[in-house]
Amino acid sequence: MTRRFTGIIKAILLAGIITSIITTGPLLGGKTGSFRFVFMADIHVMPELRGAEGFAAAISAVNKLDPDFVITGGDLIYDALETSYERADLLYDMYQELCEAFEMPVHHTIGNHEIFGLYPGSGIDPAHPEFGRKMFAKRLGRGSTNSSFDFEGWHFILLDTIGLTGNRSYYGHVSPGSLEWLARDLEKTPSDSPIVLCVHIPLVSPSLQVDYGLAEGVPHNLMVTNTPEVLAAFEGRDLRLVLQGHLHIVEQAQVKGTKFVTGGAVSAAWWKGPYKGFPEGFVVIDVKDGAIDYHYEDYGWQAGE
Question: Considering the entire predicted model, what is its pTM?
């Protein structure tokens, strides 16, 4: 871990952090307007362990809440990293077919488990037409692993935080290409627009700091390694909220005017029950007159034996 990255984490800790919470009060206000959306991280759809049934139950719970839209937070399937094309194809099809039950628009964030055939053990040739990010881009990303949209005067960005290594592994990193895409996207966005950023691998995580400490350093596959560079792109912008996945826990941090919320997991412990005390769930975000409230919604799923 670089000294620069360790320094930014130390600064974040000194800024004051609240961790492992289920509910919070309103975030900073701004533009008016009222709407609701849902953030669903770490779904891990699979035919085993009633994973498809669990996701269907989560979708039913979301529909009853009637949000304006849904953002998924990556790790949508389990697993394309080290599997055959047939298995990955089945999982993507399963996920897409289940998503048809949503009664509102759904926007997808890429996670590490969507990277097809990355691990050498998969036996997939990198020359495969859907190798790596290409499978997500083709099937869920409309040709890209980054996307954005506007709603009620707010700007939403879904950013790819999956870096790939030369030895066919992954780590938390926003690539130069994605940073260039982000710069272009922000150029087209009014400077006073409130922004919500959605990522899979976290930019900030106080819980990881507690687990690993400053001296040892957080493993590079658990948190983005170029967080300062990413946040620098938002200088002078109204970045209100960053929604994160990957860790299967609920936590909150604040750096200046930006809240960082890690959103638990729809699958909790990969459909085997609660993970570190956090049940299967998703985050419900309510925007009212420019202020944001959120809570973690346990949708009542009970894992099998």
Answer: 0.90
Say if residue 262's pLDDT is above 60.
Answer: yes
Number of domains within the chain: 1
Helices (H), the chain: 3-15, 51-65, 85-99, 134-139, 176-187, 206-216, 227-232
- CATH number of the CATH domain containing 175: 3.60.21.10
Give the span between the Cα atoms of 23 and 197, in whole angstroms: 19
* Spatial separation of the C-alpha atoms in residues 139 and 262, rounded to whole Å: 26
201 DSSP 8-state letter: S
Give the domain range for residue 108. 3-298
Mind listing the pLDDT tens digit for each residue in 133-183?
999 999 999 999 999 999 999 999 999 999 999 999 999 999 999 999 999
| 101, amino acid identity | A
On whether the CB atoms of residues 136 and 72 are closer than 8 A, the answer is no
With respect to residue 253, please indicate whether it lies within any of the assigned structural domains.
yes
- On the 0-12 / 13-18 / 19+ scale of CB atoms within 10 A, 177 is exposed
Q: Has residue 16 been placed in a domain?
A: yes
Residue (of 220, 289, 178, 165) closest to 9 by Cα position: 220
What the block records as the tokens of 140 is 């869920």
**Contacts (Cβ under 8 Å, ≥6 apart) of 103:** 63, 66
Angstrom distances, CA of residue 263 to CA of 4, 39, 143, 186, 194:
26, 7, 26, 25, 20
Reported as a single tens digit per residue, the pLDDT across 207-224 is 998 999 876 789 999 999
- The yes-or-no verdict on residue 250 having pLDDT over 70 is yes
- Cross-strand pairs, 17: 253
Look at residue 250 and give its three-state secondary structure. Answer: strand
